[in-house]
């Protein structure tokens, strides 16, 4: 049954490419190797290629080039076997909401050829898990957004998948509901040895949940590691500088300082990774004066995954018109 | 097969839980028979040329087919909605054959058409239609309508797989629906048509469905058709080929749409 699972990674991709027409390259050579029983968080700005990657791994889309294996099974050639053994929730709400919560789960189980007793037992178990027992007989269209999301999660778990793909599982949910979903997901990994791949826009979600984070931008995986390792790469502290003048000279001079571990230039913020922020603040300010760069704002912070994200993508999340602004800035400087 | 049954079951359960849809589906054919059949009857002379049968008997197969067409259009609409709302993705990630997804939709559409056909015949009977005394003929007629419904469901599903716009879907489907209905022997006997229309009608699977229905379900079919009836084997052959062709079309366009 578990062929290929025992030693190989649960999810593996090599040189994955997806093109739409000649113009759009949604996924541009992604390599992944995710061991079993891990939570992998795929982070990326809008349009980075997260959903496309998940669609390929869950057999919804065929890659233009490259190959991918889930549980050792090729997602194109052995699509049927992959489908049998994975669970998926989609980015947008996908529910036949004329059905009651219980019916949604039951029909899903039937599609996967589960027997009646097994279906009933699993339905009860999952309704309890996602705390929807009381709403089970109501049509899903009467559910709140959070209830629908939980029902979708239960549906994905109905068939006891070995790998679970979640595309933005907590999109638009309130903090309590999100925290509860995190708890379910952590428990799933601990108790049933499941492998999870989830995409998210929320840094805290990735930091809370993921064993490994991959940052994807414009179809390419630009960084990968544990959240801690990625954050440590940024330096012990980060100094955020906003100002105007000769940015290039400033960046150059700052980079040359011995205690500076990393410099990342965003569209407004320059991030400087240093060993001890409070101590180095003065020296950074001194560099600005030398470089004819006027500092308007300067702060010291412990780096976060958000800073890592900014470093690799040059954008904050949900920074919709970043390219435009970036462009304007280049003209100005 | 199991997946087709599951999806059929799901559509039927949704249908039975929706009183408005049920009501509409039951009332529509009754209105057609009563308003159209009776109205036309009083406008034309009471009897068809060369026949003693009332016009209601002549009209009935046409109304059955009309309902089947309407049902298939509704089925395509359901399919388009499921595609747009992403529900089709739930089917696509499940380990089931792609064709079974379409079949689940088409078979539930057909089931509803069967209900309608039975109601139509029943109302027709009350209004004085002369049904064949042979129940096997009725059964054969229902199967024939089911085959026709499957074929047109295929066309509807194919169109609904290619567009993302409900307005475009309905506009496109009418391009098929209207000639299928009017360029046939549904409303006028073949013998009374101008030649061009008769040629068109003979190229139309609707004609074979209706002629088959008349032969199997009603008394004195030759008089009803206003000429010699088409051979029954040909009616079956054309309808079955239409069913297969329709579903094949739906299948290939659907496959292309998910590439
Ligand atoms: N069917 C399609 N046809 C053409 N381009 C597409 C199609 N689907 C996606 N794209 C493009 O591919 C790129 C990647 O899209 P994708 O949905 O994978 O991004 P994402 O990382 O999931 O973004 P988001 O965070 O907004 O969900 C985008 O530029 C998008 O416009
Ligand atoms: Mg997405």
Polypeptide structure, described:
The complex is a heterodimer of chains A (333) and B (259). Chain A is built from twelve helices and 14 strands. Chain A is of the alpha/beta class. Chain A folds into two domains: 11-225, Rossmann fold (3-Layer(aba) Sandwich), CATH 3.40.50.300; 229-330, Alpha-Beta Plaits (2-Layer Sandwich), CATH 3.30.70. In chain A, the strands form three sheets. Chain A has a six-stranded mixed beta sheet with strand order 6-7-8-3-9-10, with helices on both faces. A four-stranded antiparallel beta sheet of chain A has the order 2-1-4-5, covered by helices on one side. Chain A has a four-stranded antiparallel beta sheet with strand order 12-13-11-14, with helices on both faces. Chain A is elongated and about 75 Å long. Mean pLDDT of chain A is 87; it is low at 1-5 and 317-333. Chain B has a domain at 57-73 and 110-257. Helices cover 78% and strands 0% of the residues of chain B. At the A-B interface, helix 2 and helix 3 of A face helix 1 and helix 4 of B. Adenosine-5'-triphosphate (ATP) is lined by residues 20, 24, 26, 44, 46-52, 91 of chain A.
Please supply descriptive tags for the structure shown above:
heterodimer; A: 333 residues; alpha/beta; Rossmann fold; Alpha-Beta Plaits; 2 domains; 6-stranded mixed sheet; 4-stranded antiparallel sheet; 14 strands; elongated; disordered N terminus; B: 259 residues; mainly alpha; 0% strand; binds adenosine-5'-triphosphate; binds magnesium ion
């Amino acid at each position: 049954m578990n062929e290929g699972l025992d030693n190989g990674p649960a999810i593996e991709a090599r040189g994955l490419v997806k093109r739409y027409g000649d113009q759009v390259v949604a996924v541009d050579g992604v390599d992944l190797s995710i061991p079993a029983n891990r939570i992998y968080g795929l982070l990326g700005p809008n349009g980075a290629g997260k959903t496309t990657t998940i669609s390929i791994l869950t057999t919804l889309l065929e890659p233009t080039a490259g190959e991918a294996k889930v549980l050792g099974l090729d997602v194109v050639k052995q699509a049927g076997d992959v489908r049998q053994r994975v669970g998926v929730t989609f980015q947008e709400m996908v529910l036949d909401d004329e059905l009651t919560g219980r019916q949604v789960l039951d029909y899903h189980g039937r599609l996967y050829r589960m027997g009646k007793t097994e279906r009933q037992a699993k339905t009860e178990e999952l309704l309890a898990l996602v705390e929807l027992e009381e709403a089970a007989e109501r049509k899903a269209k009467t559910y709140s957004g959070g209830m629908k999301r939980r029902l979708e999660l239960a549906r994905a778990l109905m068939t006891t998948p070995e790998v679970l793909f979640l595309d933005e599982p907590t999109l638009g949910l309130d903090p309590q509901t999100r925290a509860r979903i995190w708890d379910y997901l952590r428990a799933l990994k601990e108790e049933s040895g499941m492998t999870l791949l989830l995409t998210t826009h929320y840094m805290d979600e990735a930091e809370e949940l993921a064993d490994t984070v991959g940052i994807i931008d414009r179809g390419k995986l630009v960084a990968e590691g544990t959240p801690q390792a990625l954050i440590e790469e940024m330096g012990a502290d980060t100094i955020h500088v906003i100002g105007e003048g000769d940015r290039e000279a400033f960046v150059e001079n700052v980079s040359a300082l011995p205690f500076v571990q990393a410099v990342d230039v965003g569209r407004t913020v320059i991030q400087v990774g240093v060993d001890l922020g409070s101590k180095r603040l003065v020296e950074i300010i001194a560099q600005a004066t030398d470089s004819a760069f006027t500092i308007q704002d300067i702060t010291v912070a412990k780096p976060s995954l958000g800073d890592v994200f900014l470093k690799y993508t040059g954008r904050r999340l949900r920074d919709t018109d970043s390219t435009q602004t970036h462009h304007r800035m280049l003209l100005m400087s | 097969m199991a997946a087709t049954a599951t999806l059929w079951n799901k559509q039927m359960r949704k249908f039975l839980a929706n009183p408005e849809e049920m009501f509409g589906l039951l009332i529509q054919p009754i209105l057609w028979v009563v308003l159209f059949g009776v109205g036309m009857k009083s406008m034309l002379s009471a009897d068809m040329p060369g026949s003693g049968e009332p016009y209601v008997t002549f009209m009935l197969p046409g109304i059955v087919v009309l309902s089947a067409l309407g049902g298939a259009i509704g089925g395509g609409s359901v399919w388009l909605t499921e595609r747009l709302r992403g529900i089709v993705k739930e089917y696509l990630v499940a380990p089931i054959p792609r064709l079974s997804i379409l079949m689940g939709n088409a078979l539930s559409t057909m089931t509803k058409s069967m209900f309608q056909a039975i109601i139509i015949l029943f109302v027709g009977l009350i209004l004085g239609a002369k049904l064949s005394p042979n129940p096997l003929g009725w059964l054969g007629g229902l199967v024939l309508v089911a085959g026709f419904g499957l074929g047109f469901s295929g066309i509807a599903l194919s169109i609904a797989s290619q567009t993302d716009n409900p307005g475009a879907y309905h506009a496109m489907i009418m391009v098929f629906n209207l000639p299928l209905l009017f360029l046939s022997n549904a409303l006028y006997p073949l013998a009374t048509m101008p030649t061009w229309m008769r040629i068109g009608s003979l190229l139309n699977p609707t004609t074979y469905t209706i002629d088959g229905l008349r032969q199997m379900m009603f008394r004195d079919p030759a008089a009803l058709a206003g000429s010699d009836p088409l051979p029954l084997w040909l009616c079956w052959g054309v309808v079955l080929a239409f069913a297969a062709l329709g579903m094949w079309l739906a299948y290939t366009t659907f496959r292309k749409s998910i590439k």
